[in-house]
C-alpha cells in the first residue's frame, strides 16, 4: 500500500515556494540600487592651492558672525555657539576682492583652553569656481600660530574633495573680537 502525503504538506510547500520567490525578488531589487562604476572613466585627480582671507566681524551694526547660544559656564565660554557668513577676500583688507563666503558655525568645545569646533563651507563666487564649495570640519585653537583642519568634501568642481587648510590669524582686535584670518587651502579634487 502506497503512503499518501497529507494535503497540508502540499499547502506548506506551495506557500514556501511563493515566499521564497517573493523574498528573492525583493532582495534582488535592493541589490540593484547599487551599481559599481567603471573607475577608468574618472579624470585624473589634481591638487589645488589657494589663499583667502576670512573676515570674522562680531561687532558693529552688521556683524558677519553672531552668537546663537551663550555659554552656561562663563567666563571660559565653553558651550558657546556662533553662526557665521564671513566674507572671503583675496587680500587681508575687507575692501579687497570678494571671492566667496565662509558659511557655517563655530562652537567653543574645550573646557581647558580656547578651542573651537569649526563646521563651515567655503562658498566660492568667482570665475570657474563660482557655485562650488569646500567643506571643512575640525578643531581650531585660535591662539595657536598655525591651525590645521581637514577638508572633508565639496561640491561642483570640488566634488569628492579632500585635503586640509592651514589657518593663521592675520589681525585680531581684542576689544571688538573682530578677526582676519589667512586660510591656505590644499585640496585634492577631480
Automatic annotation (TrEMBL):
What's the protein here called?
A: Dirigent protein
Please spell out the taxonomic lineage of the organism that makes this protein: Eukaryota, Viridiplantae, Streptophyta, Embryophyta, Tracheophyta
Q: Please give a single GO biological process term from the UniProt record.
A: phenylpropanoid biosynthetic process
Family per record: Belongs to the plant dirigent protein family.
Q: Where in the cell is it found?
A: Secreted, Extracellular space, Apoplast
Please indicate if the UniProt record lists Protein biosynthesis as a keyword. Answer: no
Instruction: Give the UniProt keywords, A-Z.
Output: Apoplast, Secreted, Signal
- Main subcellular location of this protein, as a coarse class: secreted
